[in-house]
Design goal:
The chain is of the alpha+beta class. Helix content is 48%, strand content 16%.
Length: 660
């Protein structure tokens, strides 16, 4: 890949949302942050300069789609489609199949986003927001990729575009469109406001803590009620044959060239040892002064007002007095510290001198073992440290490290020696010498693998991705290039291929029966849970209902409403942002919740109001988050209104490809 302009942001915001949904359903992948999804579109729409040249000059129809009479060309579509495919290839690390691509519907998502983009550009032109030639020149001139010594360099500009097989006109047209859309997004964003009262209400809601009572039902108790017939097993097998395919498998003969086999025979001179020692003295053989510390932290950032800072200082001073009076420091850290280390009793582990903020560093390395510091102020707030252990600086001598150094040198030299040996043997193998003979001449042994699939670990080799990739790239009796693993080099020769085939019913019957039984048991579990929820809404007594039905009742413990999951339970499928919808006026949620093979019925037991004293510290970040979400919602409605009154045609050839 040629060096050019690189963007890490997603190309299309709508596709990012859509594909995240597809991945959740199809690949159980994580969701994208809606904040990122909205704002990245204001930075970039098109250019990640890779894999473009293959598509620029391909012939095809003049238009794949039309938006109010304006065409979307096959070139535009191919560029953006390939960009998205490449992102998935990187994400899925080689496991992206044609079937996966079809299920993800990337073609449909790309054409939808290109239509959306065209609608927005048309509206921007109607509003007079087009980008002038001067604005475009200024924008490109300021891009550091095209600068030399801080100034725009025409030769560098043309060189980078040429290296990525892009014409200047094409790049400039896309950049002009990006700037135009940025203006439109700015116009829309400027019309959106979030008031302080809205932020305060959202903060109160998100930071309120609740403790819920809950009843858990699992499918296991319902299994004895389930009966599966032979007809059901047969029907499932016939309807799902494609999912029961055994993948392509291969068998290879190979020679492994262990690095230590060659390294152990390599001589190392005293001079080499001494040079290695001098070169790596500070980085490998010197242990700086260090201390194992515990830490209690109280936030008081520079932007906080004097009253907030004083409140934090007084709180910190009170905890310091408790520590000085002999209270357990680790427990104080767990209870009061606002540092991530609080859950671990404030333990920071060993830290070398010079790696902390200067005030902390000075205080920490003035402490003896077991001592507690005074109150330390930094721009972040107030700190208390305790030295659990101290370690003086030490430098290992050459005599102490000689054996280690010799092994390091042999290892490095051995890698080169091993690679050279494997490369020489591969040349002989290509000339017809059997691998068994080559191995014998090296004092090694050739081996034969069992049948294995592309993503299956070969037991004798371990998780060496390059070994599998090399094996599956070979034709029958073909010899592989030299393959480098972490502990050895390899040469492979393909001996056998077993093509994909549907497993016979006899081999999958027990799996099918187990799956059908679990599915029916889950259905009975849900049926029971829904009946209990109906009863709970009427009686509003979760303890009484649990007792009548022989079920246990538990508590979640305190957690904030905006938590993405409940620590005692784990993730719940239906748990939306903002948590489980309960209040003192409506203590019973209107639904059941599923997670980790069980269903849950909840009832509010008690709640704690938000700590409004921290509101000012967190207001700005929350306001920005709310504003971004509002802007996203307004933009989505804006696009929907444009789409509703537009004339949009999608070419038959694209629809045919999707159907195929």
């Amino acid at each position: 890949m040629a060096t050019g302009i690189h963007y890490d942001a997603p190309v299309f915001p709508e596709i990012e949302r859509e594909r995240s949904y597809c991945m959740l359903a199809f690949l159980r992948h994580r969701k994208r942050s809606w904040i990122i999804v909205f704002f990245v579109t204001m930075i970039v729409l098109v250019f990640v300069l890779w894999g473009v040249g293959r598509y620029i000059n391909e012939p095809g129809p003049e238009s794949l789609a039309k938006v109010n009479g304006e065409s979307i060309s096959p070139t535009d579509f191919a560029f953006h489609y390939q960009r998205l495919v490449d992102q998935y290839k990187n994400l899925l690390k080689g496991s992206l199949t044609e079937e996966t691509l079809k299920n993800l519907n990337l073609r449909g998502l790309v054409i939808q986003e290109l239509v959306r983009r065209q609608l927005l550009l048309q509206e921007a032109r109607r509003l007079g927001l087009e980008t002038s030639d001067e604005e475009l020149r200024n924008e490109i001139g300021m891009m550091p990729e095209f600068q030399a010594d801080g100034r725009f360099d025409q030769n560098r500009y043309l060189q980078i575009l040429r290296a990525n097989r892009l014409a200047p006109a094409q790049f400039e047209n896309e950049r002009r469109a990006e700037l135009t859309l940025r203006k439109l997004y700015g116009l829309i964003g400027d019309s959106v406001m979030v008031t302080e009262n809205e932020v305060k209400d959202r903060y109160r809601f998100e930071q309120e803590k609740v403790n819920l009572s809950y009843v858990r039902l699992s499918a296991e108790p319902f299994l004895p009620q389930v009966q599966i017939t032979e007809e059901e097993i047969q029907a499932y097998y016939q309807q799902n044959r494609e999912t029961m395919k055994e993948p392509l498998k291969v068998q290879v003969e190979y020679i492994a060239y262990p690095l230590d086999h060659f390294a152990s025979k390599i001589p190392v001179s005293d001079r080499e040892v001494e040079e290695f020692y001098k070169t790596h003295l500070k980085t490998k053989f010197h242990q700086p002064k260090a201390a194992r510390l515990r830490h209690i932290f109280f936030r008081a950032p520079q932007e906080a007002d004097a009253q907030q800072k004083e409140k934090s200082r007084l709180k910190a001073a009170a905890v310091l007095r408790e520590a000085q009076q002999g209270k357990d420091f680790a427990q104080l850290a767990k209870t009061f510290s606002e540092d991530p280390s609080a859950s671990n009793g404030g333990d920071l582990g060993f830290l070398p001198e010079g790696q902390m903020l200067a005030p902390l560093d000075r205080a920490a390395f003035a402490l003896r073992k077991g001592q507690i510091s005074g109150l330390i102020e930094t721009p972040m707030g107030y700190h208390i440290l305790k030295a659990e252990e101290t370690r003086e600086p030490k430098t290992q001598s050459l005599a102490e490290t000689r054996s280690e150094i010799m092994n390091e040198i042999r290892k490095e030299k051995g890698k080169t020696e091993t690679g050279n040996a494997a490369a020489a043997d591969r040349g002989k193998a290509l000339s017809g010498t059997p691998l068994s003979q080559l191995a014998k001449e090296r004092g090694l042994a050739s081996a034969q693998s069992g049948l294995f699939s592309q993503f299956e670990v070969v037991p004798e080799i371990g998780p060496v991705e390059e070994f599998n990739r090399g094996a599956f790239s070979l034709s029958m009796n073909e010899t592989s290039p030299v393959i480098e693993g972490r502990q050895a080099y390899y040469i492979l020769r393909l001996q056998k291929r077993k093509e994909p085939s549907v497993l016979p019913l006899t081999e999958v019957r027990s799996q099918i029966e187990k799956g059908l039984r679990e599915k029916k048991a889950s259905g009975l579990m849900l049926q029971k849970a829904k009946a209990l929820l109906s009863q709970l809404k009427t009686e509003k007594d979760i303890q009484g209902i649990a007792k009548k039905n022989g079920l246990g009742i538990e508590e979640t413990g305190w957690f904030p409403r905006n938590a993405t999951q409940i620590s005692k339970i784990g993730p719940l499928q239906e748990m939306a942002p903002g948590g489980i919808a309960v209040s003192m006026h409506q203590p019973i949620p209107d639904r059941i919740y599923q997670g980790q093979g069980a269903v849950y019925l909840f009832a509010l037991k008690e709640s704690q109001p938000a700590d409004m004293e921290r509101f000012q510290q967190e207001k700005k970040a929350l306001q920005e988050r709310m504003l971004a979400k509002k802007q996203q919602q307004i933009l989505q409605k804006f696009v929907e209104s444009l789409r509703a009154k537009a004339q949009i045609e999608v070419g038959a050839q694209l629809l045919e490809k999707e159907a195929g």
